[in-house]
């Protein structure tokens, strides 16, 4: 069964990565929520997609206590998502102002999610960040996020060999061959970010495991019509 994963919460109706968006995702029929986390100046975990706040400040230079009221910390966000599963995407990429090659943000994420009852998947574009997660707490499921896929077989093999539970690919390159390659190695496929009902139906027919969408109510209705 394909899961509906609300992208940054129900971001089609509410500001993304906010408590309101997370609570609405549950009400609009999502099974899971996807959210983003970045580190603050004092090692806090801000739930925010971009490295900079709306006022221009860089999150890594701001103390957690000085974040705007609409930017929750990770624990607050997870609480707002309960009882839904949560895909926590760690933002830690070379070139970002908050990039940390030691991947120390993982320690905080492990502390925040390790004892929770709700299902958790930790994802990232940065494979070294995921390696640290697997070293620190291998019981927490992980997923590599990808954009372009130049060599599907090689990527899928590497993801499986690293011990990840899933591949989270961008929508465009997803086809039957990619889904089959992942499933053959026991990997789930969670596709981002898909709002078009026709494409959602195509992905369900391909057998993807999750669809990340800004409009969970639309995705839920498509799934109802296909049931």
The value of Rg in angstroms is 17 Å
Helix percentage: 25-40%
| Main sheet summary | 8 strands, parallel, barrel
CATH topology title: TIM Barrel
Total strands: the figure is 9
Share in β-strands? 15-25%
CATH class (first level) name: Alpha Beta
Look at the helices and sheets and give the structural class. alpha/beta
What does the overall shape look like?
globular
Low-pLDDT runs of 5+ residues are none
In sequence order, what are the helices and strands, one letter per element?
EHEEHEHEHEHEHEHEH
User: Alpha-carbon distance between the termini?
Assistant: 10 Å
Q: How do the strands line up in the largest sheet?
A: 1-2-4-5-6-7-8-9
Mean pLDDT: 97
Note the total helix count. Answer: 8
CATH architecture annotation = Alpha-Beta Barrel
> What is the CATH superfamily?
Phosphatidylinositol (PI) phosphodiesterase
Domain count, please report it.
1
């Amino acid at each position: 069964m394909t899961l509906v994963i609300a992208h940054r919460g129900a971001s089609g109706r509410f500001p993304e990565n906010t408590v309101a968006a997370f609570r609405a995702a549950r009400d609009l029929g999502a099974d899971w929520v996807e959210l983003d986390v970045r580190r603050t100046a004092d090692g806090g975990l801000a739930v925010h997609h971009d490295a900079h706040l709306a006022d221009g400040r860089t999150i890594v230079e701001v103390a957690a206590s000085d974040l705007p009221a609409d930017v929750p910390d990770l624990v607050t966000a997870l609480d707002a998502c309960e009882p839904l599963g949560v895909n926590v995407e760690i933002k830690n990429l070379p070139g970002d102002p908050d990039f940390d090659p030691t991947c120390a943000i993982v320690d905080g994420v492990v502390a925040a999610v390790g004892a929770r009852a709700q299902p958790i998947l930790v994802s990232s574009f940065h494979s070294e960040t995921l390696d640290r997660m697997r070293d620190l707490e291998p019981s927490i499921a992980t997923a590599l996020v990808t954009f372009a896929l130049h060599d599907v077989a090689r990527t899928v093999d590497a993801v499986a060999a690293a011990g990840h539970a899933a591949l989270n690919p961008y929508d465009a390159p997803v086809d039957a061959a990619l889904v089959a390659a992942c499933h053959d190695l026991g990997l789930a496929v969670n596709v981002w970010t898909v709002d078009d009902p026709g494409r959602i139906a195509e992905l369900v027919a391909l057998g993807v495991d999750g669809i990340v969408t800004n409009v969970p109510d639309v995705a839920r209705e498509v799934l109802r019509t296909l049931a």
